[in-house]
Amino acid sequence: MEKQRFLLFFVLSMGILIVWTNFVAPVWFPPPPAPDRDVAQNEDPAPNGDPKAPNEPGAQAAGKPQPEANAGQENPEQNRAEAPLKAEEPLPEIEKNKPLVADWDPAKNVIRSFKLGSLDPETGYFMEVELTTEGSGVSAIALSDLRYKDLENPKHQLYLLNPVEGVAPSLATAFLSEQPKDPVQSLSGALVTWDVARDKQGRELIESDPDHPKLLKGVTFRCIFQDLGLEVLKTYRLEPSTKKGDDLVDARTSEVSSYELQLEIAIRNLTDQPQQAVYLLQGPVGLPLENKANTHKYRDIAMGFIEPTGAVRGTVLTAAGLVEMVDENPQESWTSPFRYMGIDLQYFSALLVPDTDQSTDQQIAFVKPVLARRERDANHSDISLVFGSRKLELQAGGTELEGGQPADRLTHSFKLFVGPKREELLDPLEAGSLLNYGTMGALAGVMLWILNGLNGIGFPYWIAIIILTMIVRGCLFPLSKKQVIGAQKMKELQPKLMELKKKYGKDKEKMARAQMELFRKHNYNPLAGCLPLVLQLPIFISLYTALSTSVDLRLAPFLWANNLAAPDALFQLPFALPFLGRDFNLLPILTIVLFIVQQKMFMPPPTSEEQVMQQKMMKVMMVVMGFLFYHVPAGLCIYFIASSLWGIGERKMLDVYKTDAPPQPATAPAKK
């Protein structure tokens, strides 16, 4: 009996350690919230007539004159002789004699914004992309799938890219004559406002969707860098899905191309002399940190390096790891060829993918990690990347030699994947390692398969979790039956155990041998009672992993709760409780109450002072578990509540199984 108690205590202790590590430690002393960022009120309306409201993510000031490009900045290339611009006929789509950046009127040099795609899921677009002429970057991206709502405001769609004060917009681009020592500062200092490219008739190169004429699917920006003598075109394109109806719903879980923003950078040397240049490209920035008080995964830098064998090695660098790296070696960067590079969240990712094979044609020579905004808790810091191109050898009046002949323009192409972390979407990018199910990956995958299958036939996820609980407990029923029968045997053997204790006193070795002999004689295995508890521990870990990785369980509703992957938060208290916060979570309280009820109903009465102390310790552990369980996901609480109710009913049913009294040894007849 003592060993059974010890094993039960050990299993519960391991469970408490796991819950402590994943739930309590990260939120024991939560940092103060970051101050709200000021958002400008004036917005230059997008061409499609849908200006973003000032309080929405992605809104930024426009309409005010911007400083002239490079005004007041010392140009390190001023001392070199400037080659005259060639007066050759430009490409057909470019307006001839377009004014150069240095000649722009600052009063007209305003920041404009354009929107590609739509938030209307019926249009076939999976996202809406807001572009800005500031560095011709991406200021915001929102997903159109109605399942991907904002956690803080479920009425609004989720914005995965947002502006960050003091950081260049995502995919903003700057050109320099040589690789800078500090790419981050150089990118911010060299940003200029780009114009929209025009054709010979002066019409802006804006591509409308033929099926939805009011929507845009492509925009081309143009900039002439006077000090470098370069003309650069940047084209963004977003392709909608061609599927309709139910096929469109299925496509949102498997069609990766519609989650990709296509980017093409075309460069032309306008001078009469060969020259060199590099460009810097801002990586994804402003990804939201969701449920940071309860999550175990924050922002990570996701990297997929190409091995010499051609395989892709996936790895991540946490925000806290980046803070430590920046403090120790702020100049560190990565130069290995990569398949993808970006920012990884708990349920979503934003990854930059070069269109060419980086192992043979390495367009990007280095990647510099960026600490965009440091927070008191390093895990909550905002992070990004800056991509630096290889040195471009630009021939006079054209670009690099291609096949021995000068090409008119040098073109680099990329795709920016912004979407949910699903196996069907990440595998084509060779980024499947971002779906990390941990040590219980196989079991977590099976549980997700069951939950998604039940949901697919019409069951809400909370009912699917209850059915999953019934399946698990049903499979464990034979062991539970043996546990009840064993407990009954143990109850009947208590008098004999007490006799053995009196007989052997403090001789623990003889007592242990006699006890094991007694158990063997009556076919009782003390370990059998703990086996159901031991087997449920990996199930607990796997379900927690499933809730932490499956985007489908994010915002899955349950009665009053709107997110099975977070605490149920029935209402907010008028004041914050120590260690618990202001949210009143009912499900964890019900979970612990049922644990205590089970303990009182089925715990045998103590027969020794040692057992009395053990049961008191169990009660204290229940109280401690109440604090530890207070911030667990609602879906996990539903599993424990259903499991406890099943256990109570199962035990009542199994009470009919009684063992016969232990057989008495035969006695020889008395001799006369």
Which structural class fits the helix and strand makeup? alpha+beta
Q: How far is it from the N-terminal to the C-terminal residue, by CA?
A: 43 Å
So what's the overall shape?
A: elongated
Question: What characterizes the major β-sheet?
Answer: 10 strands, antiparallel
Q: Tell me the number of helical segments per DSSP (H or I, 4 or more residues long).
A: 13
Proportion of strand residues: 15-25%
Q: Please provide the count of β strands.
A: 23
Describe the structure concisely:
The chain has 672 residues and is of the alpha+beta class. It is built from 13 helices and 23 strands. Strand 2 (127-132) and strand 3 form a beta hairpin.
Description of the structure:
The protein is of the alpha+beta class and 672 residues long. It is built from 13 helices and 23 strands. Strands 6, 7, 8, 9, 10, 12, 13, 14, 15 and 21 form a ten-stranded antiparallel beta sheet that branches. Strands 5, 11, 16, 17 and 18 form a five-stranded antiparallel beta sheet that branches. Strands 1-2-3-4 form a four-stranded antiparallel beta sheet, with no helix packed on it. It is elongated. Mean pLDDT is 78; it is low at 1-7, 23-108 and 659-672.
Q: How are the SSEs placed, and which strands pair?
A:
Layout (H helix, E strand, L loop, with lengths): L1 H23 L88 E5 L9 E6 L4 E7 L15 E3 L11 E4 L6 H8 L4 E2 L9 E4 L2 E14 L4 E9 L6 H7 L8 E10 L5 E8 L17 E7 L5 E7 H10 L9 E7 L3 E7 L9 E10 L8 E8 L2 E3 L6 E2 L2 E2 L3 E11 L2 H4 L14 H16 L4 H15 L1 H28 L3 H14 L9 H19 L21 E7 L3 E4 L1 H17 L6 H20 L5 H21 L18
Antiparallel strand pairs: 1-2, 2-3, 3-4, 5-11, 6-8, 7-8, 8-9, 9-10, 10-21, 11-17, 11-18, 12-13, 12-14, 14-15, 15-21, 16-17, 19-20, 22-23
Helix pairs in contact: 1-10, 1-12, 6-7, 6-10, 7-13, 8-9, 11-12, 11-13
